[in-house]
Amino acid sequence: MIKPKKNTLVYRFFVWYIARIIKQNFNSFNFNTIDLQKDKAILLLANHYSWWDGFALFHLNNLYLKKQFHVMIIENTAQKIWFMKYLGAFSIQHNSRSMLQSLQYAGQLLNKPNNLVLIFPQGKLHTSHISKIEFQKGVQKVINFSKKQFQYLFSVALTDYFENKKPNLYFHLKQHNPTDFKTLNDLENSYHQHYQLALKKQNETIV
Q1: CATH code of residue 16
Q2: Rounded to whole angstroms, how far apart are CA atoms 191 and 173?
Q3: What is the pTM of this model?
Q4: Whole-angstrom Cα distance, residue 48 to residue 181?
Q5: Structure confidence by residue, pLDDT tens digits, 126-143
Q6: Is residue 1 part of a domain?
Q7: What's the N-to-C CA distance of the chain in angstroms?
Q8: Residue 165: inside a domain
Q9: How far is CA 142 from its chain centroid?
């Protein structure tokens, strides 16, 4: 398992660099405001359909959420992209002995109020045209390894070009408490409802 490392200079550079490339590659960066509990950590659950997802949510955290950012990524990715560990990335390797260690580490991060843990519950990249986000079972283990005193934040990222050369990026956000769900199936169904509502809102967007 590869864990995050601290390097203030590297971190500050990539805060600036990621903000710069997002500005260069997107026509707009949009998100709705929500009521978050500042004294609780955030388990951020998001759809995963592009190379940009982790970087865009890192930027969203710097702009708005203001938490200590962490993201679970596949170990091969962590090995290839050397700087990810300096941005809060930690690795998971499926079907390995270290997998449980990674899930436990994620759960323990949620016990500290200043932390944000980003997980893509699909477990891998999927097209943005799918009708439902299916959760992997590891999400439940992360929750169970925590004290369940965090808050959920659902994020659905969608893009549209309209008349622009560059895409407009939209984050549809919704907050929940752990007590809102009894099972992983309840959590998945709630995210699915939010996903469908985000698609509906996106279809109603007027330029």
Answers
A1: 3.40.1130.10
A2: 11
A3: 0.94
A4: 22
A5: 777 777 888 988 999 999
A6: no
A7: 45
A8: yes
A9: 14
